[in-house]
From TrEMBL, chain A:
One of its GO terms (molecular function) is ABC-type transporter activity. It comes from the Bacteria. This is Cu-processing system permease protein. The chain crosses the membrane at residues 20-37, 58-75, 95-119, 131-159, 165-190, 243-265. It comes from Melghiribacillus thermohalophilus. Pfam families: ABC2_membrane_2 (PF12679). GO terms for cellular component: plasma membrane. Keywords: Membrane, Transmembrane, Transmembrane helix. The keyword Cell wall biogenesis/degradation does not apply.
TrEMBL record, chain B:
NCBIfam families: para_beta_helix. Keywords: Membrane, Repeat, Transmembrane, Transmembrane helix, Ubl conjugation pathway. Pathway: Protein modification; protein ubiquitination. The lineage of its organism: Bacteria, Bacillati, Bacillota, Bacilli, Bacillales. This is Nitrous oxidase accessory protein. The keyword DNA damage does not apply. Signal peptide: none annotated. It comes from the Bacteria. The chain crosses the membrane at residues 382-403. The keyword Transmembrane helix applies.
From TrEMBL, chain C:
Residues 6-232 form the ABC transporter domain. It comes from the Bacteria. InterPro entries: AAA+_ATPase, ABC_transporter-like_ATP-bd, ABC_transporter-like_CS, ABC_Transporter_VariousFunc, P-loop_NTPase. This is ABC-type multidrug transport system ATPase subunit. It holds the Pfam family ABC_tran. The keyword Transport applies. It comes from Melghiribacillus thermohalophilus. CDD domains: ABC_DR_subfamily_A.
Length: 274, 409, 239
């Protein structure tokens, strides 16, 4: 029940916060750009085109950063403003507190993207745009997955940061690393390895970057696996099987439960060591 | 026994071969029809062809030929002379399938040719092989596990149509031919769909070249040293390179659908070619040009292009330039292709825009694809509205009841 | 029969070998008020945080209503009400909303909110946004939060910090009212006059050490009826 109380409070705080509305405005603008994209799907099954890829990219620039900032700052401010100090004298577990905040912020962020997608979807439907429903559905799922995974990371950043400034710096740093610098770093770093070991290393590293993980798998399930080239055909084929899809869901769950679990553990450990 | 029947027949006779096993080599040296309902099998395992067709107006129909040989340069059927008709044959060969030497005005139709799948491609021979043979029609053949599906050298005015080639090296291989029509054929999972080299006046149209991937030099269509070819209405998808145009000039390439290839179109030392009204969709690299000036690349649809049509002529006023950045990174280490369209990659691409003058450029790209496949359907549109409304309700509920509404009593 | 609200024995706190609170013993009956007096860095706040369960003691034991934190955290938490010294209320909730949130987390019924609002005199401001509250009203809010569910022990860290004389007076009244209801209170302050007006027991702290302690009456007797302010001056500035 405490989880629910914390969650509701988080939602309330979220929607009385100007931050949430500026994110909502930005995200709505971005999703409105969907309207101006002509997407001519090759077939009904294949939802992936270069334009959907471009749109996914826009979301990848924006959503992880938004999630990291909102999540990390919300957790850190609880510490910095002394509200957690007070709550830790309450009969309240660290589990309920962190899990409740995670759930609340997830709802806030999911509302932000739902508004954006809903509005642009409605306009696009009435304008008679050639946008396929399944394309939009997949991009929505893509966004939700990004929120789930990055929010886990965000609460962890919030828990290890001493103040807002630190939380902000770490959030931006991680975003830069995982979203912008990732390919260049790996290309520079892995080029030194013997060629035969590059691909296996890349295939493993995908699971350590939620941005890449979600991007690659959603592309794959949208039927765009071929864009990664023949080298990955077998790999892609495997993930198209039920076992592969299950494995992907499992990895996502490990990310969420792992990062939230780690945060709870850290939070509890710090509880009486101020 | 079959040879004796042939020897005893008079020109113009029809020999109905009874069901059963026969052994070659067989030579047909007068105008005869040799036919079966598929129950006659002719085996051969010598250096001579299993069946040799000479003279004129020989028809082979419905026979089954099994050609076993340790030597790949042996032939199942050798054809010389004119006006022959090879129809509905089922050929299983360790060497060549049907070989035409100075054979003209013949029809090779509805045959099934299967090579030896256990041998590497380099140890097989061509399914249908023409040399110095003109005015033949090669149609509706199904060819698998050979070296090249249909190979033509120094042959003129042949028509190759509605054939299907898979699991071989080249689907269709044209060398120094003139006036060949290659139409409505299908080539998939070969090294190259159609390899056209040193030809004049070739027409390549309505073919489908798909999934040529499993080789470093795989491509859908390769034009090498080709002049005056007309390449149009082909569907070229999921190949390593969709179209490679090398050392070729004055070809017209239009209204092809080039989709989901690693490189859509690649120009190498190509000049004065006319490339227009093609669709380039979902290719990793839409196009590429090296040492290729003076080509007219105009009015194609490029899905990666964000165009702007100000004067309403359906052409963008902004030129499309294909950025080679990603290609240069991935060409030696294809494993890095996993970063295709990764945000960091796109970011770098925009950061490191090199000299754009060297890129393949379409000065007036199309805003909409050429042949419009109307995928829009109303049922999904209703679903779409429902989904959007649901999302909006969800967000309004939480914004109002979760956030804005104050708790008062 | 004596009703022991708080029993502290040998309580000590060290941070990296540096002792900030030397072993201290405290006892508080219900209906009694204990004032921890001293300057900055005296260790008052740390002692209160240890009692509130926020800071882990290095040594010693704490019993609130005969219950220790280690035995049963949740039950222990229900026995205390804590008012932190540093607490930001720059959030866009109303007084009532946040109090209800705290009440739910403390598992006390919603009527408690009205009760404490009445006690601290925030009834008229209950639908105001917390951000718009004055410093004094914020202090009242935090105080109200501590009283939710009528805990056995109130732990108030610098409750009079930043208050103007009018609020000081009303704070004194509130403490006196609570005493009548048999409430046990421990608070820290550097307003010695407030301590003098409300406390039964007084502890002077300096750099983590107890300089003087006892009931207010005893200390008065011992120091010839000096005020706490005068005692303080004598203790710290005269030899």
């Amino acid at each position: 029940m405490d989880i629910f109380t914390i969650m509701k409070n988080e939602i309330k705080l979220g929607f009385r916060n100007p931050w949430a509305y500026s994110f909502l405005a930005i995200f709505t603008l971005v999703s409105l750009s969907l309207l101006f994209i002509q997407s001519g799907p090759i077939s009904d099954l294949n939802q992936y085109t270069k334009t959907t890829g471009t749109f996914m990219n826009l979301i990848l620039y924006l959503l992880p950063l938004m999630t990291l900032l909102l999540g990390a700052l919300s957790i850190t401010s609880e510490k910095e403003d002394g509200r957690w100090n007070l709550l830790s004298t309450y009969p309240l577990s660290s589990f309920a507190f962190i899990a409740g905040k995670y759930a609340g912020m997830f709802i806030v962020l999911s509302v932000i993207i739902s508004f954006g997608f809903g509005l642009s979807g409605l306009i696009s439907a009435f304008m008679g745009q050639g946008l396929s429903f399944y394309t939009v559905l997949w991009i929505f799922i893509f966004s939700i997955l990004l929120i789930l995974l990055f929010l886990g990371m965000a609460v962890w950043i919030g828990a290890v940061s001493k103040n807002r400034w630190q939380a902000l710096t770490i959030s931006v740093g991680i975003w830069f690393l995982l979203v912008l610098a990732w390919p260049i770093l790996l290309i520079a770093g892995l080029s030194q390895l013997p060629y035969a070991s590059i691909q296996p290393t890349l295939e493993i590293l995908i699971f350590f970057n939620p941005a890449e993980l979600v991007r690659i798998f959603v592309t794959l399930y949208m039927g765009g696996g071929h864009i990664f080239g023949p080298e990955y055909y077998q790999w892609i084929e495997w993930f198209h099987k039920p076992a592969g899809a299950l494995f992907f869901m499992l990895v996502c769950m490990v990310w969420v439960l792992g990062s939230v679990g780690l945060t709870i553990w850290k939070w509890e450990r710090n509880r009486r060591h101020v | 026994m079959l040879q004796r029947m042939i020897n005893e027949a008079s020109p113009g006779d029809v020999i109905k071969v009874p069901a059963g096993e026969y052994s070659g080599p067989i030579v047909v040296d007068k105008p005869l029809t040799v036919q079966s309902n598929g129950a006659a099998t002719i085996r051969g395992s010598q250096l001579d062809p299993v069946i040799t067709v000479l003279s004129e107006q020989v028809t082979l129909d419905g026979l089954k030929i099994i050609h076993q040989s340790p030597d790949k340069d042996t032939r199942a059927i050798l054809v010389e002379g004119n006006h022959h008709n090879l129809n509905n044959l089922t050929i299983r060969t360790d060497g060549y399938g049907i070989v035409l030497r100075d054979a003209h005005q013949s029809r090779i139709t509805e045959n099934t040719i299967t090579g030896n799948a256990d041998r590497p491609v380099s140890e097989r021979q061509n399914g249908i092989d023409l040399f110095g043979s003109h005015d033949n029609v090669i149609a509706n053949n199904d060819i698998i596990y050979v070296h090249d599906g249909v190979y033509m050298e120094r042959s003129e005015d042949n028509k190759v149509t509605q054939n299907h080639v898979t699991n071989s090296r080249y689907g269709f291989h044209l060398m120094f031919t003139e006036g060949t029509i290659l139409s409505q054929n299908q080539s998939e999972q070969n090294v190259t769909g159609a390899m056209v080299m040193g030809t004049r006046e070739t027409s390549v149209r309505d073919n489908q070249f798909s999934e040529q991937l499993n080789h470093v030099y795989a491509q859908g269509l390769l034009l090498y040293d080709v002049q005056n070819a007309e390449v149009h209405h082909n569907v070229i998808n999921a190949n390593l390179v969709g179209m490679l145009i090398q050392d070729s000039k004055e070809n017209r390439i239009y209204q092809n659908h080039v989709a989901a290839n690693f490189i859509g179109v690649q120009l190498l030392n190509a000049e004065h070619n006319d490339i227009f009204e093609n669709n380039f969709v979902a290719n990793v690299v839409s196009g590429q040009a090296q040492h290729s000036a003076f080509n007219r690349v105009q009015g194609n649809y490029w899905d990666s292009h964000m165009g702007l049509d100000l004067d309403g002529d359906d052409h963008s006023e902004m030129a499309f330039r294909a950025d080679p950045f990603f290609y240069t990174i991935v060409k030696d280490k294809p494993a890095f292709q996993i970063f295709f369209q990764a945000p960091g990659m796109v970011f770098m691409e925009n950061l490191l825009k090199s000299d754009t003058n060297l890129w393949m450029t379409d000065t007036a790209p199309l805003i909409e694809p050429v042949t419009e496949s109307e995928v829009e359907n109303r049922s999904s549109s209703l679903l779409f509205i429902g989904f959007s409304v649901l999302l909006l309700l969800y967000s309004f509920y939480f914004i109002y009841f979760g956030g804005i509404r104050k708790y008062e009593t | 029969m004596s009703d022991l609200a708080l029993k502290v024995k040998g309580l000590e706190k060290k941070y990296h070998e540096q002792t900030v609170v030397f072993p201290i013993d405290l006892e508080l009956q219900t209906g009694q008020v204990l004032a921890l007096c001293g300057g900055n860095g005296a260790g008052k706040s740390t002692i209160l945080k240890m009692i509130a369960g926020i800071v882990e003691p290095t040594q010693g034991s704490i019993l609130v209503d005969h219950l220790s934190w280690d035995k049963n955290r949740k039950e222990y938490a229900k026995k205390i009400g804590y008012m932190p010294d540093h607490f930001s209320l720059d959030i866009s909730l109303t007084v009532r909303e946040l109090l209800h949130y705290y009440a739910r987390l403390k598992k006390v019924p919603g009527q408690e909110v009205d009760k404490v609002l009445e006690k601290v005199g925030l009834v008229s401001a209950q639908n105001k946004s917390l951000e718009s509250l004055s410093k004094g009203m914020r202090q009242r809010f935090v105080f109200a939060q501590a009283m939710l569910g009528s805990p056995k022990l109130l732990i108030l860290d610098e409750p009079t910090n930043g208050l103007d004389p009018y609020w000081m007076k009303s704070f004194v009244d509130m403490i006196r009212d609570l005493k009548k209801e048999n409430q046990a209170i421990i608070f820290s302050t550097h307003h010695l006059d407030i301590a003098e007006e409300t406390a039964d027991l007084v502890v002077f702290l300096h750099e983590g050490k107890v300089m003087e302690s006892g009931s207010l009456a005893e200390l008065k007797q011992q120091y010839n009826n000096l005020s706490l302010q005068q005692m303080f001056t004598r203790l710290f500035f005269q030899t």
